């Protein structure tokens, strides 16, 4: 390390060989430990300063695990697409709650290998392929009804503004639970599972006392450890009977009564054959269900809230969208899925909101499986380094986007700077709310469908206005996703009473 450090810090000793990207001097061990215990995502402000000092690629010289931050679209494309395979790994998960919750069986934190491949292929082909997604159109109608009923009740509040995020989350969660377990759970059960999900999500961004020496810290923070273990047990108590019920159904011995769907994520997981022919255990299936529910609900409802917030602020955009929706679904009770294809402005509104307010400001951490060189041979990302890409900064880059901080859906229509943008980033990256490359979010198609279907119907059903005399505040706050600091309060007036 002594030999290496001067070279890393002093660029003149480079001799044109690729070197670690620029950055502040070596970070002492104490800081490394703190970084590991808190979330790197909380460093966003510090990073902005580092990027303005060192440029679009910055390395923190953390001993044994240099950590690289990228906020430039070409470098991001090089890292995620060209060098995709070498940077498709994930850092090992820090021990403690994160590891217990994922139970070493989820897609998100699996290293780039056979387990990840089997699980991801199963999710993509058996659940998220358009032919599978179509199986749940009745479920989407049902979830939409839940949402509209809740909002209608809220709108009876006269002209007062009401908070809408909880209703968004509940409807989205009900739908994901139906897709996951094939069952419509009652409201009480749904609320309990949902509150457990939020409990686990918070663990990701809170201070993690078990990251260092868990064998000791778990005794020091005994109460907290026991509380997490109890929440996990409770989640399994709820999930495992639901999993068994699908297994019985598969074996032709249907046990549970009530409404159930013909297909579910659990059904696909029961059929997964891992390397060596092993099947997934019940507790592993439970972890994957947890991942499906948390991955699918929180991000999508966060995005939905940002979209509706922008539409409340931009009455002109809301009016234009409503006209498009009315024309495409004329004479129908609801906007149906096939109508969405005739709504370019709706797609533009959603793309613009995802650019301006990506629910995740960073992709999940990537890890270099071997030495990788980026920036035309200039920067070395050594094996074992962590790589973080700043999704939000890419979408706000003034070199790519005109008036990048304004909400202007028109830019995604013909002739605009976002026209024809490839959201998967395979050709080039201009924005990447779902990441890009091998680890890109497999749920992006489903998320876009849910957003389009819900937004079109929400705008058709209600007029959305700000609270009397107030403007919607777009300040941000980091939870698991980047949410509205002041959750949206809107006056929602049914358009059926006009
Ligand atoms: C608006 C909604 C959503 C957004 C903005 C979003 C965003 C992301 C991002 C940025 C990543 C990390 C990519 C990377 O590390 O390079 C990711 C990964 C992932 N997402 Fe999503 N996501 C959304 C919805 C969903 C849905 C609906 C599902 C599933 C039903 C899902 C499942 C996953 C999974 C399993 C991964 C891990 C992929 C892997 O490691 O291979 N997401 N998502």
Automatic annotation (TrEMBL):
Per UniProt, the keywords (alphabetical) are: Heme, Iron, Membrane, Metal-binding, Monooxygenase, Oxidoreductase, Signal, Transmembrane, Transmembrane helix
Q: Does the keyword Iron apply?
A: yes
What Gene3D superfamilies does the record tag this protein with?
Answer: Cytochrome P450
Tell me the membrane topology, using the record's own terms: Single-pass membrane protein
Q: What is this protein called?
A: Cytochrome P450 89A2-like
What one GO molecular function would you report for this record? iron ion binding
Q: Which Pfam families match?
A: p450
Enumerate the InterPro entries for this protein: Cyt_P450, Cyt_P450_CS, Cyt_P450_E_grp-I, Cyt_P450_sf, Plant_metabolite_P450s
Q: Report the PROSITE patterns cross-referenced here.
A: CYTOCHROME_P450 (PS00086)
Q: Please tell me where heme binds in this chain.
A: 441
Q: Where in the cell is it found?
A: Membrane
Q: Quick one: where is this thing mainly located?
A: membrane
A GO CC term attached to the entry: membrane
Q: Which family does it belong to?
A: Belongs to the cytochrome P450 family.
**TM regions (residue ranges):** none
Q: Which PANTHER family match?
A: CYTOCHROME P450 89A2-RELATED, FLAVONOID 3'-MONOOXYGENASE-RELATED
Needed cofactors: heme
Keyword set includes Iron: yes
